[in-house]
Amino acid sequence: MKLLALLVMLVMPIATAAAREAASMRVGDHASFVRVVLETPRRVQTTLTLNPDGLSATITAAADLDIALPARMTGVITAIEKLTPGDAASGVTLHFRTPVKLASQSTLPPEAALGQRFVADFQPLASSAPAPSGTEAAPPSFPPSPPIPAPKPQTPPAAKPPAAELPTPEIPKPKNGDFVLTGFRSAAFGFSLESVLLAIDADFGHEIRTGATHSGSAGKHTLTLVSSPLLPNTTPPTIIYTIEPQPRGLSLVQLTWNGLGGAGLTEADAVKITEPMTSVFKSVAFVGGHTVLGLAMPDGQLVVFQGTDAAGNSVRMIMRPAPIAGPAGEGDKRYVIDLTYTEGPTPPSK
Q: How many Å separate Cα 232 from the centre of its chain?
């Protein structure tokens, strides 16, 4: 009965609440620069203004957002404060220990399992002291910040972006559909091992990237890591990236939630993952492909969601029973959730 109730919850429309949309901000110290990422649940126009003295910057989003700030500051960032929210705008002000310059900014569009990411990199200036009289201060010299891995656009942009900005990736659109699943977060299908490592760095931070377990042979590699929780009040998933020899590159990303210590998830904990993810997936138009919702399998597995785009790429979430120790009983049921992003057998034409 509980499983049936869960199935009903997954296929019922999500009620609209007059609540502010949840958003989050991440910061990361990359030695020569500090990266700030504002993730919003949908496509939102976002602007950045750097104060002339370089000691503060304001990021404004054209939406009523409840922005979750990072627990601690890093690099040259000393504080982040929220702006007074309005009906159609929200934002934050970053405060820096020393003057900085804007090294780059870009916007990654929403994908199947996450929202839009506005990314900005700030570099501290070499010195804020005035140059001696009669001399001209030498411009600071820093290595360029690594670009955010992004799939190559199918069509060239109308205008070349300024040198200080990263190009905004475009979602290719095949002839018979209006959505193509490009990968998982910043890791796009086709990426090399090095590009996937950069994508992990951009999405989760350098510490998690360096803690990833690397294995493989004959040109095929796998990267395994445990990320931070991806959803509120949930346990962290284990993520496995499979990178095949070029030209195929990254072809599969697998996420598994199995509870603390591998004890499985209670039904309530499973719902905290499946319900919001299903809501996101249902909002994506897999035109030219197909979708499956709430399909019970003979072996006891439940296909919570499956979507295949016109290019043959697919995303699939499965909830399956997890064996646990102790006497069998209704209250002992535990579950494992598997979420996979798989590139189609034939990559879309470039």
A: 15
With 0-12 CB in 10 A as exposed, 13-18 as middle and 19+ as buried, what is 239? buried
116-124 vs 34-40, strand pairing mode: antiparallel
Tokens at 9, concatenated = 């919850």
Which has the closest alpha carbon to 61: 45, 42, 50, 48?
45
| Alpha carbons 190 and 196: distance in angstroms, whole number | 9
Q: What is the tens place of the pLDDT at every residue in 107-158?
A: 888 775 678 889 999 999 975 444 444 444 444 444 444 444 444 444 444 4
pLDDT in tens, 191-208: 988 889 888 888 888 878
Name which of 191, 189, 190, 181 is nearest 313 in CA terms: 181
Query: Strands (DSSP E) along the chain, which ranges?
Result: 21-29, 34-40, 46-50, 56-61, 65-68, 77-82, 90-96, 100-108, 116-124, 183-184, 187-188, 213-217, 220-226, 238-244, 249-257, 290-296, 302-308, 314-322, 334-342
Q: What six digits make up the tokens of 73?
A: 């500051």
Place of tokens 């950045």: 48
Whole-number Å distance between alpha carbons of 232 and 243: 29
Q: How far is CA 300 from CA 49, 234, 318, 319, 321, in A?
A: 53, 23, 10, 9, 7
Contact 79, 73 (CB under 8 A): yes
